[in-house]
Amino acid sequence: MPADLTHRTYDVNGIQMHVAEQGEGPAVILCHGFPEIWYSWRHQLPAVADAGFRAMAPDMRGYGRTTAPPDLEDYRQEVICADLVALLDRLRLPDAVFVGHDWGGVLVWNMALHHPQRVRAVAGINTPLFPPMPASFLETMRENPGTWDYQFYFQEPGIAETELEQDVGRTCRLILRSSDPADGFDVLAGFHNVRAQGGVLIGYPQDAPRSVMLSEDDLQCYVEQFQRTGFRGGLNWYRNHDANWAWDQSVKEYAVPHPALMVTAGRDPVLSPKLARKMEQWVPNLTRGHIERCGHWTQQEAPDELNRILIEWLGRLPAR
Q1: Which residues, 6 or more positions from 205, have their beta carbon under 8 angstroms from its beta carbon?
Q2: Residue pair 69/15 in contact by the 8 Å Cβ criterion
Q3: Pairing of strands 119-125, 260-265
Q4: pLDDT, tens digit, for every residue of 284-307?
Q5: Given phi > 0 = left and psi -120 to 50 = alpha, else beta, which region is 61?
Q6: Is the Cβ–Cβ distance between 306 and 263 less than 8 Å?
Q7: With 50 as the cut, is the pLDDT of residue 88 above it?
Q8: Which 3-state string (H, E, C) describes 180-245?
Q9: Residues with a known catalytic role
Q10: CB 64 within 8 A of CB 38
Q11: 3-state secondary structure of 21
Q12: Whole-prediction pTM value?
């Protein structure tokens, strides 16, 4: 990594948040998903910094070197958004550009909905702003979960943790895979049948090689962190759908007027491009980017293409 990458820990909202930072200028906060850490943005940090921004990639609540509280309710979206507001306050920043992938994408759209004055612009990588729902996500999907079956498997504390933590190296090798044919298979493509098959990783080769998108050092960075923390903090993000839905009911107008970017990936088997088709209804100032030959882990599988889209969009943002 470039020599000017720094690591700092901030006291925010009752936790200690580890943040990797690079560059100077307007703040761009990069929020990861599950099961990731700040390192997922290693290709974007220098590119965003070189473009004249202060790039910051936190370990989100429950991950890496950031505090992982024990209680499920500590992982509500309302609480995690409060982490980011507190981070802005701690850094004396009026606002920031928020970029999120996977659960980080859900988070940054929620920042725009619930804390619009703290958001300069917002970008979802693979994760769209979903339309407002008449009930919580799990209730809405219960009768026909399809691809979202894994979300139900993740609900009972301890079940998924036991499976994923049995062999953390194997878990990271199997889940963090690209759509490149050289990787052989994509675990995420089987998420529609997780409960019936008895777990996320059942049926895959015990000694699958690491993904071609990762070096051995990259893989070990993930393995070392999740061997230390386990997966419970990240899984707890999935266990607050009812509370998150109830919080969303407090939004008076379900709309994001900010400059926004949506980057879809043609080979993502979970967050497919079709989920983002109608976003302009709620996000009128939307720019779109698409990477066809890319799966779920876009920042790592197609870093050059994503960086090009992201930097071009950042460069077009209105002056503050």
Answers
A1: none
A2: yes
A3: parallel
A4: 999 999 999 999 999 999 999 999
A5: beta
A6: yes
A7: yes
A8: CHHHCCCHHHHHHHHHHHCCCCCCCCCCCCCCCCCCHHHHHHHHHHHHHHCCHHHHHHHHHHHHHH
A9: 102, 238, 296
A10: yes
A11: strand
A12: 0.97
